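Office hours follow-up: a student asked to see two folded examples consecutively, so here they are.
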Amino acid sequence: MSMGVFKKAFSATFAVIAAAALSLTLCYTIISKVVSGPDLENRPTVSVTGMSREQRASHMISYLDEDGKEKALCTATAIGPHALLTASHCNDGIRSKASTAIKIDYSAHHYSILAVTSDDRDHDIYLIDGPAFRYTVPLVQGVPKPDDSVRFYGFGEGVYPSTERDGKIFADEDPSDVDHAVQFFLFKIPVYHGDSGSAIYNQQGQVIGVVSYLVVWYGSEKMGAYALNFSPDRIETAQKFDPRDRTTYPQ
């Protein structure tokens, strides 16, 4: 594939996915074993009346540098009480020199990323410390299909709370020479800085990908994403993880 075809979509600072795969693809990479933080609310007081479960589970995450300053903004989805699904490129590939501290929504507390796993399709699952998320969605991986209606809930341009945007899948394959087995798909929905990492849902409420790519095709811009490819055991680990219970840590 020509590198000129794809550009990373809307990460604040980073534009390249770390290409190195995990030494054990079914395992989590342990980032930190430090559990810290008081039991703080994850977001400012916002009425959730009328919000869907998916929207309630969406969070704005800010990656912090060594001085605690925000260096990137993305969207993540709570798929377990202490687990987030987002895009790998948001943190420039956490297995390299990347942030292990994040802010969630407008909390003053800095959360630690304790472990991470990737499916090497620009999708990461973080296991984090801090208080449990009040609203979560089950990670049911769906298959993208042409003309399917899709939606996501992103924090584009830092607008809070998240906004719902919907559209349709434009095609079920990459117009270039990408391996079709990875189920790359295009969709036409307005996307803004900060939307990267938003879970993309189909009509059945299944997660079929996350906001990842801006695709330039015959002079027209489309959004692109890969289908999720996490193994069941990694999803189960994310759903059950509790930073206070060492027996739930990935082995």
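And the second, which I mentioned at the end of office hours:
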Amino acid sequence: MLCPSATDEYLVSEVLAGNKVACDLLIVRHQSAVVRLAASFTSDWGSADAISRESFINTFNRLRSCANDASFYTLLCGVTLNAAIAHIKSRGIHNNTVTMRDHNICDAISDDEVHESLLDNTVNKSTMRRVHEILDKLPIDFKAIFLLNEIGNLNYTEIAHIFGVPESTIRSGIFLSRQALIKGLKGYI
């Protein structure tokens, strides 16, 4: 019998051996984080749920070929990011920026959730909306690496692995994203 506190690595080995309970445990463990990452990227909670389901399916399908490349969660975040980008492009946004069409993500976040990461050091939902407006103006890769770090809680090395670039590139992208936030929030809070 599997223990819910088993490591991701152990659960992945069980999934590869055909254990469906291990699969369910990984989904339960990571689903809220994946939905939140997708929603932060797409600004659409409804699509985020569908992206989450697609991401888990695609990640489980890739496990055999990627089993030793990265942690399950890093792989899952990379797959989620790709699904979110595909969703954005399917909405007809083909340039290097994303325009937030609505603020569903901000409205769906409770004031208690607003204090979980650097993004959430904001005072209220209005400020959170402004943060998302600023992020939506960033080049899509900068937004992606910033959200993987802040929402996905991935470190620079894990993000570099997803993008296949040096860690210094990720550090620079996150630094520039934070600078854009600081500049965009000056005088606002």
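Two things to take away from it. The mean pLDDT is 80. The chain is about 70% helix and 0% strand.
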